[in-house]
Amino acid sequence: MSLRWLSTGLAILLVVVALSWWLGIAAYLTHLRASATALINSARGIRTTNDAEREIASWRERSRKDFWEVSDHPGGDHNYDAQITNVAVARFRILQPTEVIVSITMRDGKLRCVTVIEATGWHPVASVFIQEWFDEDVSNRFQQQP
């Protein structure tokens, strides 16, 4: 085999490996975007405790077991937090890290709050924070006290 055939074969191999790597990254990012969009859309549909429980169960079925992190807080709040990030790809420095977090807060078995957060950047440069309360006494929190 000549040196020319060997160098041509090596060049073709490198192109195929690089193309496969970029196609894999593109497929992974497409999957992340679809998952983040679906998570935000499911949070948008939560209006009742039953809605929240249904969405948590649905995401548990189609995602890994540790997708929802469950935690208890002082005062009786029970949180379910889901997070989707692109940190695995951002480590290559081809894009900024971005995360979408959906948090569902319950108290005494009743829906209290749904929070959606999107942050971009290693030290979050841009963030969006949306919170919807379902507490009955939320309006009282904003009234002036005598």
Beta-strand fraction estimate: 25-35%
- Helix % is 40-55%
Shape: elongated
Question: Can you give the mean pLDDT?
Answer: 86
Gap between N and C termini, in Å?
A: 93 Å
Q: In total, how many domains does the architecture comprise?
A: 1
**N-to-C SSE string, H for helix and E for strand:** HHEEHEEEH
Supply the helix-strand structural class: alpha+beta
Low-pLDDT runs of 5+ residues are: 141-146
Number of helical stretches of at least 4 residues: 4
Radius of gyration, in angstroms, nearest whole number? 22 Å
How many strand elements? 5
Order of strands across the widest beta sheet? 1-2-3-4-5
Biggest β-sheet description: 5 strands, antiparallel
Textual characterization of the structure:
The chain has 146 residues and is of the alpha+beta class. It has one domain. It is 44% helix and 29% strand. The chain has 4 helices and 5 strands. It has helices at residues 3-44, 49-62, 87-90, 138-141, and strands at residues 68-72, 77-85, 98-107, 110-120, 126-133. Strands 1-2-3-4-5 form a 5-stranded antiparallel beta sheet. It is elongated, with a radius of gyration of 22 Å. 12% of the residues are buried. Mean pLDDT is 86; it is low at 141-146.
